[in-house]
Amino acid sequence: MKDIKTYSEAIARLESIMSQINGGNVDIDTLSDCLREAQELINFCRDKLFKVDEYVKKILESIEAIDNE
Amino acid sequence: MISGNEPLTLYELNALVRGAINERLSSCYWVVGELSEVRETAAGHCYIELVQRDEATREMTAKARGTIWSRIYSLLRPYFLEQTGQPFGVGLKVLLQVTVDFHELYGYALDVRDIEPAYTIGDIARQRQLIINRLQQEGVINLNKELEFPALPQRVAVISSATAAGYDDFCHQLQNNPYGFHFYTRLFSSPMQGARTEQGIIEALNRIAENMDFWDIVVIIRGGGATSDLSCFDTYDLANNCAQFPLPIITGIGHHRDDTLLDIVAHTRAKTPTAAAELLIHSMAAQAARLDNMANGLVALSRELLSDSHRRLQAMVQRLPVATALLLQQHKHRLDILQQQAAAASPQRILALGYTLTTCNGRIVRSASDVEPGCVLTTRTIDGEITSVINEIKR
Questions:
Q1: Nearest Cβ partner for B298 among A35, A49, A51
Q2: Region(s) of chain B under CATH 2.40.50.140
Q3: B277-288 burial, b for 16+ CB within 10 Å, e for fewer?
């Protein structure tokens, strides 16, 4: 989760986790780590879809401010 | 001065011209020309100027004034708009039915009786096709379509007229989406009809380009009627700018006729502003569904993995007693054998057979050279020990 900044990166990482579990490359010891990371990624993606990103809002406002000058 | 004849007044001369024209050009003619001036009067008449240009140089080679009287113009104007999708105006090539007039004061003029819109339609289509060919030759016509559609088209730069109903429809549709998705929109205002449209949209695109990284997508919209003027979306410069724009463009300029050039080069064409908003909402919904699928898939996969491990564990537990018993038996068997071997090698058994064990100073005497005369020997038998002293050694 550490280097994930964008939605596309998060989706790509999720898919790689899925295929690792699917391919039998995850044992019971690492499963919970994988699941925890996947859950974090899913939450991250859902936030992008449903939550207001204050950072994006701020940029939008600054663009408007520049344009209105 | 010509002798014998009084000079004509100008009026008289013009009257002669008029007479000659009326006599020689009395019928109706179909004439082709480009409208270089169109002026409507308060009384409902329309004054036009018709020109012919050299194909190559665009230099004017002929010109005539003309009049469309209100009685005809009131019918002709809406008919032309309905048929061609364009208002009767400057720059269009038209096929007019005229009679030729000459007036002593106003000179030569055409009296317009009828119009053939099919000619104008054909000319517009020809112009459009020329632009399409050019965009194809330049290799730009599909550039915008080839851009990847963003996974989340959330940051939306909207080009529209601030006063247009279409913009409100679009924003309303986005903001009230049933899923609760969040969108970030900003209006880049431009005229959406008339001659200033082309430049307005291009300028708006340039302003969007200043913060290119911020935006996911561009949407060009306006609310429109069926017969509104769309020629402003059919120009080369606009199509070229949109085709080469580095963000995907969605159009929703609300019309029912064939695609405009803007629609043709855009990444995706929606029919109306509302439909454009729906498109964005659907893309987001597809992502939400994908996330749900992944979440469910992960749970299922994990369950499978856990129950697999559990099954393996249980199988092991069941096998454990059998395996243990087997192992114990194996060990017991080996112990028995060892015991027999040990028993066979026991000194007691050998002593009982009548052999003895001799030691000297606690060390077993194996050889005559191990001892000297005078040494004390201890001889062990099955039932006791005998102590003796060595008298003589024969080697």
A1: A35
A2: 10-126
A3: bbbbbebbbebb
pLDDT tens column, A6-55: 898 999 998 898 888 888 777 878 888 888 888 899 999 988 888 888 88
Other residues' Cβ atoms within 10 Å of the Cβ of residue B89: 15
Distance from CA of B298 to the nearest CA of A (A): 7
The reply to whether CATH 3.30.300.30 applies to domain B10-126 is no
DSSP label of B140: -
Buried b (16+ CB within 10 A) or exposed e, B119-147: bbeebbeebbeebbeebeeeebbebbeee
Q: Which residue of B has its CA nearest to A36?
A: B298
Q: Note the CATH number of domain B155-285.
A: 3.40.50.9100
Interface contact B214-A59, CB threshold 8 A: yes
Interchain pair A11, B288: CB under 8 A: no
Low-confidence ranges of chain B (pLDDT < 70): 1-4, 224-228, 256-258
Interface pTM (ipTM) of the complex?
0.81
User: A-chain residues within 8 Å CB-CB of B184?
Assistant: 56-57, 60
pLDDT at B339: 86
What pTM, to 2 d.p., does this model score? Answer: 0.69
> Which residue in B181, B305, B313 has the most chain A C-beta atoms within 10 A of its own C-beta, making it the best mutation to test that interface?
B305
